[in-house]
Amino acid sequence: xxxxxxxxxxxxxxxxxxxxxxxxxxxxxxxxxxxxxxxxxxxxxxxxxxxxxxxxxxxxxxxxxxxxxxxxxxxxxxxxxxxxxxxxxxxxxxxxxxxxxxxxxxxxxxxxxxxxxxxxxxxxxxxxxxxxxxxxxxxxxxxxxxxxxxxxxxxxxxxxxxxxxxxxxxxxxxxxxxxxxxxxxxxxxxxxxxxxxxxxxxxxxxxxxxxxxxxxxxxxxxxxxxxxxxxxxxxxxxxxxxxxxxxxxxxxxxxxxxxxxxxxxxxxxxxxxxxxxxxxxxxxxxxxxxxxxxxxxxxxxxxxxxxxxxxxxxxxxxxxxxxxxxxxxxxxxxxxxxxxxxxxxxxxxxxxxxxxxxxxxxxxxxxxxxxxxxxxxxxxxxxxxxxxxxxxxxxxxxxxxxxxxxxxxxxxxxxxxxxxxxxxxxxxxxxxxxxxxxxxxxxxxxxxxxxxxxxxxxxxxxxxxxxxxxxxxxxxxxxxxxxxxxxxxxxxxxxxxxxxxxxxxxxxxxxxxxxxxxxxxxxxxxxxxxxxxxxxxxxxxxxxxxxxxxxxxxxxxxxxxxxxxxxxxxxx
Length: 572
Description:
By secondary structure, the chain is mainly alpha-helical. It has helices at residues 2-31, 37-45, 48-57, 101-104, 122-136, 145-153, 156-164, 168-171, 175-192, 204-224, 230-243, 264-276, 287-311, 315-330, 332-340, 344-356, 361-375, 382-387, 418-441, 445-457, 465-468, 472-488, 498-515, 524-536; strands at residues 61-67, 70-77, 80-88, 94-99.
């Protein structure tokens, strides 16, 4: 009886297994579509890229997995993945095949809408470029170098074209001539303090109306057709962690496991938006990321207007403010950051705000530290901003020197350089202590460093010439040059106007971008508004910038005639 019971138990177990298999097989077949694994591999074997790799490496071994309606057939040789072929699960046709960097990097495959969405469409991108030129080019003197500057700023579009065609072997090298030219222009303006500036021919009212229309168009495009890339997704997840009192770092979900690579300020900036549109736990439309990106964009736009009025009070300030506002709203790559719902315009807004309060050492230190603990890159500006003092007007030009924007600057004889430096350091330390307190407690500063700066420093990417070639010694030399320039600009030239400060800031950020292992078009907005200020605030037709007058500056004494000329003064 015991043997019979045992046999009966085995029979029942076999029956159950048979039933489970019969139930599971149709489900598996349905999940895999009509095409079987063997059929998918057979179709992939016929792909020209697979045959080319076989001719070069001999036999390559395939593996296949089903995902999102298609088979992914990967071919390996010696442990290296050589080809990835995507086969439609219904028709059995090869839809895509990739080799090289494009196997691991989906963003290198030229997928439509991955970045920028509708902005990539020629009927959107090209008219925006045309509007940018129409509004800022000096059409009365086409050979001016400032007009060439505008064309070069649009030169990223040539590289961008090849990127959208999944040809990163061409798109990546084409970025560097543009960056090098803009670096040269930034250094020229920053070191000499003079040169040819922008002189748009449009009336102020036209530029204001066009800027407002373009800002509305951009926001509307974001609402109607834009998706949040991993950067925006990471911001929302980090904000959710903060809202629930959880550690930010080393605490992200699997689908964005490396999203904790930014500074804590980045995630804090998303908290209000995540409170309005809570994260659902999935990478969906992410309205919080949309809301944050729109606010970052509007903030940069607003700070440019305020800086224009600060640098040039009166009618000239209105023209400068309109030029800066239009320059931001019409430039395709500021819109590109908005349409991608990234956090890069937040860096731009914080740097512009730092310039706005440049004459106040405590605020300058606090704001620059806020930018640093957002995306770390602005740290290269710290030595120059530490020693910055507004350039003073010549004592012969008026009863009392002032810096632009109504912030009074004391005479040179009364300057006490140590006090502004100490105030700058105090402001930076206060912000640093406030934003690092929570990461220091949980999970600890070592984990914070490993998850942020550590990952960034060891990052490998095909989106730079360093990731595509063996030029690491040159990159190390450029890094050293960037460090030396950062220290040099703390003292040279003395003193600096706000225009020079903006230009040299742009130069340092471009220098640093030249050394990055991973570069992308979203990073243009880090330096673009600073360079725009430097170009637009230089009055055309003169060899030296006009003084940055303050609306609160004292009038000349009525007992003596007004001065015929003024030397350059700095903005606060």
